[in-house]
Amino acid sequence: MAKPAGSTEPLTALTPEQRRRYDLLLAGLDLLDQAIAVFDASPKLVTWNKALLRLLDFPESLVRVGTPFEAFVRFNAERGEYGEGDIEQLVAERMASARAFEPHYVERARPNGQVLAVRGVPIPNLGFVSLWTDITEQRRAERVIQEQNAQLEARVRERTAELERANREIDQIAGALRLSEERLRLILDAIPAMIAHVDAGQRYRFANRAYAEWFGESKQGIVDKSIAEVFGPEAYAVIQPHLAEAELGERVSYEYARKNAEGRTVYARSVVVPDVSLEGGFKGYFVLSIDITEQKASQAALVQAQKMEAVGQLTGGLAHDFNNLLSIIIGNLAALKERLPAGDAASEFVDPALHAAQRGAELIRRLLTFSRRQTLEPCAVEVGALVHNMTQLLARTLTENVRVHTRLPEQPLHAFVDPHQLENALLNLALNARDAMPGGGDLTISVMERHIPDSLSMLVELPVGDYVQIDVSDTGCGIEPEALARVFEPFFTTKTFGRGSGLGLSMVYGFVRQSGGNIRVRSTPGSGTTVTFVLPRTEASAAIEQAADTSHVGRRLREGPVLLVEDEPEVRRIIRLQLTELGYPVIEAPDGQEARSLLENVEDIAFLVTDTVMPGGLSGRELAAHARSLRPELPILLITGYASDGALDEVAELDVPVLRKPFDRATLDRALHELEQESARTPART
């Protein structure tokens, strides 16, 4: 580390011990990977570390005490460090910024591909400090992660950026060197990073304010205490092997956890640099630490989100096959039931089977809600009114010893949400609360407005904006910590076998996330549970849509056969039977290729009813698009057991209705009749 010119008098005024510490600090800074330079108010170079030459490729003849800052800027501009442009203008812009003596941070890509993080920190009335960090590999890794998973990497990058900023603030201690030890301590206390010096006997000789406060100590109170006293026996046992390694002259890095005064577990990452004297011999440690508690929480939240997304993808992938199976079962059972004479004993077996199959279809719909793949019908819903209207239903559903309370806003609050799904979610939460209070208790539903500011947006994984918050609280038995992390997983339940499916909370989770909100559960064993979720706030609708009368009587408006396209033979047979029973002649095709040929050669086809996902290289969406171009007036109905959000978006562009499996004959009849009515009202598309 270069010594500043003109500093003989202040340095000679130091005691030998102070001079030794000063030299050790300078020597320690030369071990850092970051480049550091201190400029006076002129501004001219005062001091620097070895990394400045290595990292920025400055010639040694340029890097000397007294070199004007402008010389470095001009050197960089002439060799293209700032890109193309007028040299004098580039120099003038950077000199104006330097003379402003304002903190700044930029990242600069050098012509050789190296990326540097440049931070400037003013020293009041004296000059400023510049720090350069090579972040080339880090940026390259971030780009790779971003290509793999842009959405998840964005959240991780935010957390990583916060950690990097903390690391760079730690590095500011190197740039905060002053001509006296007292000035250096003032700077160290001003930054949000933890730094300490420990002697060979593992007793603190110095700690900045952040370090002392992190352990609940004062700067003066921590001095002369041992590491074991400050950390406590459990945390000390974790870090002791690392300290032993540092005593051998190795620079070590490690993480540890401890309980703070409030009993909360906090985490830190430390770098320990051995203090080795110039004459040789171990003298102690330099300790640099940062608080990574929030980062740990973010990593845990990310892991949970990935797990829930994986389960959701699995659920959505299985839904198509299950719905096809249920279509076959329900269709055959319904046909068998209609063919049985009234009062036939076989009905005793058919009715329960049909009811069970229909329950299976409902189960699939609930799983799709969890996986956020169920189609919602959101609108402006006055949440307070909805909750108020539900209280009577809840009072009848819950036991008499469960008291229902509501806390509703005075002014209407509207959320953009599917009202039926919201009612189901509240009912599920109320039933869970009832089961948690077998001896009775209080259930409270609160509604309030909530604003998510920028400071909380990343933490709660929601865009900045206005939301409606709903709290459902009970005074029940609570949830154990080990179970709390799994409450949203499908089929996970703390209830005894046969008392619950484990789909209630998972359905609520999927509904809230698909609606653009988020949800969390807070619980203390023995003291109750609170489920809090927020939904996007909106304004009241200007008009109220009237439900259309779907009943229809009369003959068919279109003559001709229905072209039925379905790759599953048994599903195709069931739908064919339903169509023929409704009076429609049917032409069948097992795939899109054969259906396309029929469309091109059979002129009197009246309807196209096609599955969405089919083998053979031509999907239902593509077949519908081809049919629309070939016969613009042809009514088209898509049927699906499951289609991803992306596929449905593409179908929406074609303005083609979608009927979800399993469906009965009456539902199919209504869908075809609506197609006929729409076709009669709408001119042929061109």
Automatic annotation (TrEMBL):
Q: What class of enzyme is it?
A: transferase
Q: Which UniProt keywords apply?
A: Coiled coil, Phosphoprotein
- The Enzyme Commission number assigned here is 2.7.13.3
> Which residue range or ranges hold the PAC domain?
252-304
> Which superkingdom is the protein from?
Bacteria
Span of domain PAS: 180-250
The question of whether Coiled coil is a record keyword is answered with yes
Q: Where is the Response regulatory domain?
A: 561-676
Q: Which reaction does it catalyse?
A: ATP + protein L-histidine = ADP + protein N-phospho-L-histidine
As stated in the Swiss-Prot or TrEMBL entry, residues carrying the post-translational modification 4-aspartylphosphate are 611
Q: Does the keyword Transmembrane apply?
A: no
List each coiled-coil range: 135-183
What Pfam families does this protein's entry cite?
HATPase_c (PF02518), HisKA (PF00512), PAS_4 (PF08448), PAS_7 (PF12860), Response_reg (PF00072)
What residues does the Histidine kinase domain cover?
A: 317-539
Question: What's the protein name?
Answer: histidine kinase
Protein's organism: Thauera sedimentorum
